[in-house]
Amino acid sequence: MSEIRAASADDLEAIVAVHKAAFGRDAEADLVRRLVAAGRDAISLVAVDDGDAVIGHVLFSPVSIEEGDDGNALGLAPVAVLPEHQRLGIGHALIEEGIGACFVRDAKAIFVLGSPAYYTQFGFTKASAHGLFDTYDGGNAFQVLPLTVDGLAGYKGCVRYAPEFATGNP
Ligand SMILES: CC(C)(COP(=O)(O)OP(=O)(O)OC[C@H]1O[C@@H](n2cnc3c(N)ncnc32)[C@H](O)[C@@H]1OP(=O)(O)O)[C@@H](O)C(=O)NCCC(=O)NCCS
């Protein structure tokens, strides 16, 4: 069994370890460190096992939008689950709870760069259909989930992740 809770400062090393193991490299773990250090971890949730050990993590940070930016849009990244705990629905639970937390903090929209096959289940659709594009040439992998009926009103153009994404590989 696992449960989802807000991450605390004490969880950072365990979170870093989850990303390193899940991605098999340091880039995403380093990104998390940079986002946390910059205070851009707007929403950071962990999945923990019965002993409160961290087995998964998801982070949402503010994005900026070329037109209509109001500081109310967030980017989902990164998300990871320890390899031995994958395919058990933990990633799904982290993302679902994360979307709920974004909604509670009155975010208007969430962006993600990831597999459409995976993110469609949460209601994400391609951002380009709304005139919104990423800086990574993500194409259909760049997706958006409006959190209110007019969640995308006024948003147009290039969507930029937090500056910490530009430092390093991801
Ligand atoms: C992506 C990730 C967080 C999903 O976590 P999880 O706990 O395994 O996810 P769930 O159990 O909720 O869902 C698993 C299902 O999603 C599918 N899935 C997982 N990653 C997918 C992907 N990139 N594209 C398409 N489908 C994917 C799996 O096929 C699985 O379905 P199945 O068991 O019916 O075959 C996890 O696989 C992971 O940490 N991967 C390495 C890091 C990563 O790629 N993160 C995402 C980019 S930021």
Topology:
Blueprint: E1 3-6, H1 12-23, H2 27-37, E2 43-48, E3 54-62, E4 64-67, E5 73-81, H3 90-104, E6 109-113, H4 116-119, E7 125-126, E8 132-133, E9 142-146, E10 156-160
Parallel strand pairs: 5-6, 8-10
Antiparallel strand pairs: 1-2, 2-3, 3-5, 4-10, 6-9, 7-9
The structure holds coenzyme A.
Coenzyme A binds next to helix 1, strand 5, helix 3 and helix 4.
Description:
With 170 residues, the chain is an alpha+beta fold. It has a single domain (3-165), classed as Aminopeptidase (3-Layer(aba) Sandwich), CATH 3.40.630. Helix content is 25%, strand content 30%. The protein contains four helices and ten strands, in the order βααββββαβαββββ. It has helices at 12-23, 27-37, 90-104, 116-119, and strands at residues 3-6, 43-48, 54-62, 64-67, 73-81, 109-113, 125-126, 132-133, 142-146, 156-160. The protein has a seven-stranded mixed beta sheet, sandwiched between helices. Coenzyme A binds at residues 22-23, 77-81, 86-92, 114-115, 117-118.
List keywords for this structure.
seven-stranded mixed β-sheet; 170 residues; alpha+beta; globular; Aminopeptidase; three-stranded mixed β-sheet; binds coenzyme A; single chain; 10 strands
CATH T-level topology:
Aminopeptidase
Low-confidence stretches: none
Ligands, ions, cofactors = coenzyme A
Q: Which structural class should the secondary elements be placed in?
A: alpha+beta
Second CATH tier, the architecture: 3-Layer(aba) Sandwich
Distance between the termini: 31 Å
In which order are the strands of the major sheet placed?
1-2-3-5-6-9-7
How many β strands by DSSP? Answer: 10
Total number of helical segments?
A: 4
**Considering DSSP H and I runs of 4 or more, what fraction of the residues is helical?**
10-25%
Biggest β-sheet description:
7 strands, mixed
**What's the CATH C level?**
Alpha Beta
Going by CATH, the homologous superfamily would be Gcn5-related N-acetyltransferase (GNAT)
